[in-house]
Design goal:
about 375 residues, mainly alpha, Rossmann fold, four-stranded parallel sheet, 19 helices, 4 strands
Length: about 375
């Protein structure tokens, strides 16, 4: 595989027993056209197995006794601006964040983090293919990948087996799973946060879209946690999701899937996420939860971040400002990739499945399918 293509295989980060269990959960589901990808995953995960035990062997007591501060959760559907918001807030020295190195090697980063970091910097493409955002081993990344790698109780496994959405979508909200599975998920998530606290004791900025559908659970687990939700025009999200699919998600598949199935999966996940969020949000006080619109953030990022800090009662905005200015200057010439047009049939489906978002966040349904 060429440089960059290796990185694109996200679930090479599993160990071999984890991959074996994943395949056992999906007997006969790997298509012949994807067997080359499976062979690579088997080789990569076998190598990872050699690294898996060392954090627990060398740091197990420290991990179990660690106390991680309550996080700040950055919520939002994929392609809604969560990465931009994460990168802005990560400039604030009072917060930490999981890096790409840590989320893709959650079992071994305490022991082998420096080696892994050097390896990733060799194979990573300079930018993400779907949106030209900078990639790097030390850049903020989604903690959901860590949970997916560690225990497989994640909707991200739908990327591997897209025809099994009904099975893996249960892990989006975590409400339709067994008590045993829920406890495993909690233990895994807390273990990852404890490990993070051993190398960075600051409150973590956690950006993972699935958390958007778990606010009630997360608020109960972390009574002092704060939530920052970013929302974007549903039409633009839908268009941008196809760029994510073509350039990343499709590369994870171990089975073929028709475009219509992928489209329906996207829209069902969107609807499920916001149905859960709209219900959970009602029970979170305003000093713990705020929603910003992507369109407002890119129009006036300084004002939007100031509003976030004021409403959530964060101190330190003056310390963030000069670092924020440096970051904004670094992306001042950024040009997003063009969005794909969509058909009138797709527009009607977006109107239907995303209806609560249009109504709740002041987005108009557009009669023009391309604008």
């Amino acid at each position: 595989m060429a440089k960059g293509e290796i990185f694109m295989q996200a679930f090479q980060a599993m160990d071999y027993p984890g991959l074996k269990k994943l395949l056992a959960e999906n007997p006969g589901e790997v298509d012949a056209s994807c067997r080359k990808r499976l062979r690579f995953l088997k080789t990569a995960t076998a190598l990872n197995t050699l690294a898996t035990p060392w954090d627990q062997l060398l740091h197990g007591h420290r991990i179990r006794s660690a106390q991680a501060p309550d996080p700040v959760f950055l919520l939002g559907h994929w392609r809604s601006g969560t990465t931009l918001l994460h990168n802005m807030l990560a400039r604030d020295p009072q917060f930490g964040y999981p890096t790409l190195t840590q989320v893709f090697t959650p079992n071994s980063f305490l022991t082998l983090g420096k080696i892994t970091r050097a390896y990733l910097n060799r194979i990573l493409p300079a930018k993400r293919a779907m949106d030209e955002v900078v990639l790097g081993a030390d850049e903020p990344q989604e903690d959901e990948f860590a949970v997916a790698v560690m225990c497989r109780l994640s909707p991200y496994l739908e990327m591997v087996f897209p025809r099994r959405r009904d099975h893996y979508s249960r892990y989006l909200t975590l409400t339709d799973i067994s008590a045993e599975e829920l406890q495993t998920w909690k233990d895994t998530f807390l273990t990852f946060l404890k490990k993070m606290s051993l190398i960075d004791p600051r409150p973590m900025l956690l950006k993972s879209p699935p958390h958007t559908a778990r606010v009630a659970l997360l608020a109960k687990m972390f009574p002092k946690a704060k939530f920052i939700h970013i929302v974007r025009n549903p039409y633009r999200v839908y268009q941008s999701m196809w760029g994510l699919y073509d350039n990343y998600i499709a590369l994870q598949h171990l089975q073929e899937a028709a475009k219509e199935l992928i489209r329906d999966n996207m829209l069902k996940n969107y609807h499920q996420m916001f149905s859960s969020l709209n219900q959970d949000r009602k029970n979170i006080p305003d000093n713990r939860f705020i929603t910003v619109r992507y369109e407002d953030l890119i129009q006036d990022p300084r004002q939007e971040l100031s509003t976030i800090y004021e409403q959530l009662q964060f101190s330190g905005f003056t310390k963030l400002q000069p670092r924020l200015e440096t970051y904004l200057q670094s992306i001042s010439d950024y040009t997003p990739n063009p969005l794909k047009p969509y058909t009138n049939e797709e527009k009607l489906l977006v109107d239907r499945w995303c209806d609560p978002v249009f109504a709740s966040y002041n987005y108009e349904k557009n009669p023009d399918r391309t604008s």
